[in-house]
Amino acid sequence: MLIETDTSWGCSVIRGIANFAERHARWHLLLDPRDHEHRSALPDGWRGDGVIARITTRLQVDQISSLPVPLVNVGDLFEEIPNTPSVSTDEVALSA
After folding, report:
1. Pair 81, 73: CB distance under 8 Å
2. Assigned domain for 2 exists
3. What domain range is 83 assigned to?
């Protein structure tokens, strides 16, 4: 998971993913703690089956989408990444 940990939003997303994984999947999660200003990439030698990330830069798009694994983008800055599902907050429903 490449999601910032210094915001309540990021922590909520991570908690939701962890809860899902605990109940429904046999996932081993790698969390890369970081803040919203210090982007990082996956560790050298990483051999995961997929990436859940909040994509915020074109460099991240290029680096992560070039990996031979599925990517799910949970951010709203780059919603139109080819062949990549995107999950975003429904602001209208949230405000109701």
Report:
1. yes
2. no
3. 8-35+49-95
Over the chain, what is the mean pLDDT?
82
Residue 42 is assigned to a structural domain of this protein: no
Q: DSSP state, 8?
A: H
* Contact present, 5 and 54 (Cβ < 8 Å): no
User: What is the tally of structural domains in the chain?
Assistant: 1
Question: Structure pTM?
Answer: 0.80
Angstrom distance (rounded) from CA 4 to CA 14: 9
61: helix, strand or coil? helix
Concatenating the DSSP letter of every residue in 15-28 gives HHHHHHHHHH----
List beta partners, residue 86.
73
84: nearest Cα among 72, 66, 68, 92:
72
Domain annotation covers residue 3: no
Residue 41 belongs to some domain of the structure: no
Residues of the chain with pLDDT below 70 are 32-41
